[in-house]
Amino acid sequence: MRESIIGTSPKRHDALGKVTGATRYPADLVQASMLQLQVVFAHRPHARILAIDTDAALRYPGVVAVLTAKDVPCNAYGLIDNDQPVLCQDDVRFEGDKVALVVAENKDAVQEGARLVSVTYEDLPAVTDARAALVAGAPLVHEHLGTNQLCHIPLRKGDAERALAGADVVLEETFNTSWQDHAFLQPEAGIAYIDDEGRVVVETAGQWLHEDRRQIAQVLQLPEERVIVRYAAIGGAFGGREDLSMQHLLALASWKLQRPTALVWSREESLIGHHKRHPFTIHCRWGALRDGTITAMQAEVIADGGAYASTSLEVVKAASLLASGCYEIPNISVDGYAVYTNNIPSGAFRGFGAPQAQFACESMVTRLAHALQLDPVAVRRRNIYREGSIEPTNQPLPPGVSALEVLERCVEEARLRWGYGETYQQAQQVAPHLRCGIGIACGIKNVGYSFGFPEQATATVELYGKADLERAVVRAGAADVGQGAHLILRQIAAETLKLPLEKVTLISDDSSQAPNVGSASASRMTYMGGCAVKDAAEAARAKWGYTDDESVQATVQFRPTATTPLDPESHSAHPNYCYGYAAQAVEVEVNLLTGQVQVLRIISAHDVGKAINVQQVSGQIEGCLAQALGYALIEDFQMRDGHVLTPHLNTYLLPTALDMPIDVEPVILELADPAGPFGARGVAEMPLVPFTPAVADAIHEATGAWLSRQPMTPERVLAAIQFCQR
């Protein structure tokens, strides 16, 4: 009997090339004969362009052209709102705005040409604090809008004010989070050229082939079929490749000059040139009864969207929805705001608003438990989501709610492995200046697009054979950003068709040859791409049974259960079709003299529905935890007066292997999702969600100090310890 390939860990087809260096990433596509591009950045937060003098640059030997706003057919683009200029014509709104694009025969010439472009500015007042940007009379980032408020998301369930007035304990706190850079392995790079059919071809790295194509076609005012986007190997993304960074610049230069072009950013250009994780300020009040029942929560959630819209609207929707975490609270009032400032734009980043929101939420649940002198785990048990629980948008959760099971498994693993509880407390024997503690936190994160945003995935499966089915070709425009999505899709097709894995070929990296599966984001690719591939494989197999042809083809568009926008009057919506649930236990050691925090051990429990590939699920959890550790403790992206103060990796610090604990335990629960392919649901973002509050809880257990600002750097931890000792 044939063994199922689902739940196994076959060898990744791209593993050898990546280990040996044979794999070609975008920068490896650059050839000496290609024209080189260099961006002229604004390097000022807010100013009016009075003049751009390109004469000296054009006279420099080797410089071919200097493109400015007048060379752009449609000088506006954006993932949701077209509010960002390709090249600025009137105003610059953050220091990474692009003013001109120099084109030259070689790297030396293009760099010198960029230096010779002279731009005359009139500096304008800058607003760099999100709350201050909402005050009447604040400088306007986009003057024609008449406001810096990008959006307001109100959520209302029950009567929060009345419930807070009747609570036995009410706690109030303000939490602050900072920017985070995606810091993917390779900064942005790519090439472009005109093919034999006169089409503009861009080869780069991204997260959504067909969306990149749509925006490039819009900028050039070309039909979409006249633009082809191809992805080379992608060295990580984490949301940082959702927005266009240079794809449209490459296309513009090749289209204007009818020659191949290349652009490779330095790490410093990447740090100022692409969007970051949103900084949030969350002011909240939580109320509970003596038995630990949480009766109400109220929050004001303000996100710094920076100079352009990007995905801020959707991030704030998610953060507002998840500000109450995975707890059924009868009375909720949340006001979420995204705000324009003259800071670097904020956009998609792994977790998409959930890590910021649940840093506040999980911290408040723990603090309520301590104020009531109750076990924080018991308070979570009492209030956590169960099947049929009502969301903050006044509708039942999608089926497959496993928050309680995940929490119980995490706590049990911590008890068995670490002696969590009384045994652990008695066993601590450390130096006088060192203290250890364990923190527990839960997390919830949506899978896929939310609040009525169009969601679909389309796949084509072709079957070939003379007598018996011999092989299959799957066409699905799905970006593999390192997470192994391509292998997952091949496994799903192989299992559905009962073919050996090596008989399934995937075509995925060319917008002209593979249909639109949507973005590699929102932990959706296994769920959405997997459902599309599975359905298309089943449809093709059914055709195969009714024909004598040696090949058949089936194309299927998969759509999940529909989500709905938030009703402005009833505050009701079906915001998501699926959620992932997580719980973590984190042990830390705190140095009381320096404030240094060392993470010693991690247990990260997740309901993945079904692990299509066990090794890749574990790898996703472990890799995400490294990024979560950086976010919680180390990565301190700083801006002042609209300028990036951490423009290098020696100032913007990333976690290394020495920062990670040796003892990292992914715990995989497989409580099948009712609608996922073979029961699978997404997991890629979930480990980031509860980690920061788990670390904050552990620091409190070790020292008695509460932390409400991220990252929890040694200076902040030491100040909190000293404050609680007064």
Number of domains: 2
Tell the overall outline. globular
What does the average pLDDT come to?
Answer: 96
Number of strands: 25
Rg value? 26 Å
Specify the CATH class of the largest domain: Alpha Beta
Please list the strands of the largest sheet in the order they lie side by side: 3-5-1-12-9-10-11
Annotated CATH architecture of the largest domain: 2-Layer Sandwich
Our estimate of the beta-strand percent is: 15-25%
Q: Main sheet?
A: 7 strands, mixed
Task: State the oligomer.
Answer: single chain
Q: What percent of the residues sit in helical stretches (DSSP H or I)?
A: 25-40%
* CATH fold node name of the largest domain: Aldehyde Oxidoreductase, domain 4
The CATH superfamily of the largest domain turns out to be: Aldehyde oxidase/xanthine dehydrogenase, molybdopterin binding domain
The N- to C-terminal Cα distance equals: 70 Å
List unreliable stretches of 5+ residues. none
Number of helices: 18
Structural class by secondary-structure content = alpha+beta
